[in-house]
Hints:
By secondary structure, chain A is of the alpha/beta class. Chain A is about 40% helix and about 20% strand.
Amino acid sequence: MEIKSRxxxxxATKVYSATLxxxxxKAKHQTDRVGTIVRGTAVQILFTVKARTSAGxxxxxxxxxxxxxxxxxxxxxxxxxxGAHQITIKQAGKFAMTQQENEPRQLEGKVALVTxxxxxxxxxxxxxxxxxxxxxxxxDVSLERAQNISxxxxxxxxxxxxxxxxxxxxASIDAGVSRVIDEFGQLDICVPNAGVVxxxxxxxxxxxxxxxxxxxxxVNLRGMVNTAEAVLPHMRDRKYGKIVNIxxxxxxxxxxxxxxxxxxxxxxxxxxxxxIQWTHVLAQDVGKHSINVNCICPGxxxxxxxxxxxxxxxxxxxxxGETSKEVFDAAAQTRHPLKVDQTPEDIGxxxxxxxxxxxxxxxGQALNVNAGSVLS
Amino acid sequence: xxxAGPHLSRQLEGKVAFLTxxxSGIGRGIAExxxxxxxxxxxxxxxxxxASKTAGEIAGDSGAALGLGGDVTDIGTLSAAVDSALERxxxxxxxxxxAGVIGGPGFTERRDYDDSDWDATQxxxxxxxxxxxxxxxxxxxxxxxxxxINIxxxxxxxxxxxxxxxxTIQVPYGVSKAGVIQWSMHLALQVAQHGxxxxxxxxxxxxxxxxxxxxxxxxxxxxxxxxxxxxxIFEKQIKSGVPLGRPQTPTDIGNAVAFLxxxxxxxxxGQALNVNGGATMN
Lengths: 376, 282
């Protein structure tokens, strides 16, 4: 992540504070922001407040839904005020620092569920979706990992809840999805990301075994199917939904006589090819409900999965590198024409785009986000 | 369809975009989106007057858009346009090679291609994209950065199930667009060392003069479309061939181009992205 120069960072902090204050206003009242003015150290938000509808009879107050008054308030990067509520923005500066310059709050008002969000690529996706304005349910098979990432997001001023979900267990994922909808009232974006590279002991084997096929199928493929099936009834009812599956460039076609990955990883590659085909067929199936289904194929990102691959390769193909990280660095260097580090957040940016209404006409597609390693 | 949306960023603030075939149609839609995200525009079109008019309509008196005449089949005119762009704005950050044709003169009256269809699609759609990219890549390489986005078509992926009913008239177009995708991949590998990314966007089905010509042709030549209104044929095509059930708009294509031109897509290169409601999937 690039660290912004000071003036840019300060401006970003201010605009971020204003945007966050507005999202709080929107949640508390029915408000529309009509403008943001940055002057010196102050941020002025112009907004309208609409009448609240009576809980028992939302329809009867329709005539009062017109704008009642236009107000304004002033905020600093540390605090934002509304007439009745004081909102403290924790670590807004830190949060803004990771927000790309001039990038949109393109997911304002949306709710997202990310599986496998407790570390690696999933955590990066959660951070970016939160930065872009979404309320994010961070789910992971480990509640502790989910809690860590969720707390990081809320500490930075975002909105998030942690949920323990085992994607191989339909009851677990159904309960998790219900929890998200209970908490936030809706679910707009689903990112089935949870994945494994193989079964226990993967890093120490030179060949696959039955357990590798079982694990990759159960988590990577069936887990993705389970997750989609759990969110689809809600999305169909609302005629709106964005599903962004996380596959892998390894799920595309193999290339040349590349031996860098070894034979033990074959079940993983096949499961990821399955997730791409699943993306295609699901998109075709649910298009009529205005639900978009797409897929991102990450390249070489330093995560637990790559650590296991690297460990395996350093053991069996020692000329590739003596340590896992050495193998990874060599792979990233030799396989990727564009010499830039690939981060979990880079995957998050692509997910944010597919999850946004700017990509409403894109469905059924798989996009490699991989510095040009595999071209499709 | 998608809209720019009031919350959307100025993600291309300070960038300069060089676009071909941008006086009208998809090219103009892309120009409008890029401008709304903060980019200055160099609008190149074979009709220089139309390019200037479009530039004025998009950017008013702000000076943020320049309209120029340029023929993509003649790299000399493109190099001159790049020189004018550099003189005016000092840099070119984004190149959108969009100019395209569906076939040669008299396209709608033929069921099968003739030499003019091959010549027109090859020279404009394929060599025109190569020329456009070649005209800007030197400058981008010197600066060590750049974003090239070529406009192909989902017709440049694989043919889809209509067999011989259509005749061969659209074959040269599809082949030229397949060439654009392949060229984009090759160029991506060539220029990655200079920090330049190259991607292709493959639009689906849009109601443009190009599609109107296809529909007119079908109404005259295909049994099940005989005598039907062009727009009616277009809507039938959408209903039967697009999972999301909607046509795409130039703004939809512009949104995809803006993403690929933005910092969010910094590690994406050598890829082709269909923006087509799911009509073909890759």
